[in-house]
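Course assignment 3, question 2. Fill in each field.
Student: A.L.
Task: Predict the tertiary structure for the chain below.
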Amino acid sequence: MDKKELSAGERFRRFVKGESVDRLPILEWAPWWDQTIRRWHGEGLDKSLDALGVQRYFGMDGCLQTYFTWRTPQTPHAPQHGHGIIKSAADYQKIKPTLYRDPTTFYSKEYFDWLKKTGQEDGDTVHWFTVEGFFWMPRELFGIEDHLYAFYDEPDLMHEISYDNKEWLKKVFEFIGNTHRFDFMTFAEDMSYNSGPMIGKNLFDEFLAPYYKELIPIIKQMDVPVVIDSDGDITDAVDWYASVGAEGMLPLERRAGVDVSKYIEKHPEMFFIGHFDKTCMAKGEGAMREEFERLLPSWQKGKLIPGVDHQTPPDVSLETYKTYVKLFKEYATKL
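Answer field:
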C-alpha cells in the first residue's frame, strides 16, 4: 500500500508497531470538556456536531471509543462520586445477579455497521474499545477509600471480584473478536495520582498481575494493541504493566512529572499516547510550538503519538485549538 493511501486505522496500527507511515496519527483520544465545547459553541462551532463531527471539523483523524461495562440497568448506583455500592462479601453476592452484562446486548447491529463504515470503508477513523481493569472495577464497587482498605481487609473478596470480572471479560473479548476489528483497546485503571501509584508493587503482583497475564494474551491473539489508561505519575506503573504484557499507556500527564523519553528508553517495545501539556495551550502559539519541540525527539526515537494529556480545558478558545491542530499537522510529518 502506498503511504498516501493509508487509512487512519492502518496508519495507527503501523505506527505503534514501529513501521513506516506517511505521518503521525493526529488524534483527540479524549473528549473535550463539556465547558470547552460550550465555549466553542459561543465562538461559532456548529452545535449540531457530535464528537466525531468536531474532529472532522478540525481536520483531524477521527477517533471513536466504544465502552463495555459490567454494569446493567439493574446495578445499584453509588450515592455520590467516590462512594461504593458494597462493603462486604454478602453485599457483593446480593448485587452480583445485576452485574456482568451479556456482551451481545451492549450495542445494536446498526451501531457496528456504522463503526465499519467510519473505519474500514471511509477510512478516516481510528476505533478503540475500553473495559475496566482490575484496579478500577473493584474501586467502583467499594468506593475509593474502602477499596484501598479492601486489599488488606477483604483479600478473598478482592480476588473473587477480579476472577468474576476476568471470566466475564473473556466473553466480551470473544464477542468483540467476532464482531468488529478495533485498532486498539484500553483497560481503564487510573491507578496513579500525582505522586505515583496508589498501591505498591506487592499488591499489584498479587491482585492485578495474575488476571492481566491471563487476559492480555487473548487480546493479542485478536491483533488488538493493549493500552493501559492511568492518570497521574505512571513512572513505576509503566514497568509493572509492561511486565504483564501491556503494549502502551496513556495519557501521560505532564504536570504529574511524567517524562515519556525515559519510558521509551526503558521499554522500546511499548508505545504511548498523549503527553502534550494542556496547560500550555492557552498561552498561545509560541508555547504550543515549544511543547511540540519538546516531544519531537520522543516520537522520532520511539513510538509516541502526541495529544492533549487528558481533555482540552475550557480556557482554550476555538481559534487557539485551530492553531494547535495547525501546528500538529506541521509537526506530524517530522518523522
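Instructor remarks: The chain has a mean pLDDT of 94. The first strand starts at residue 62 and ends at 67.
Grade: pending
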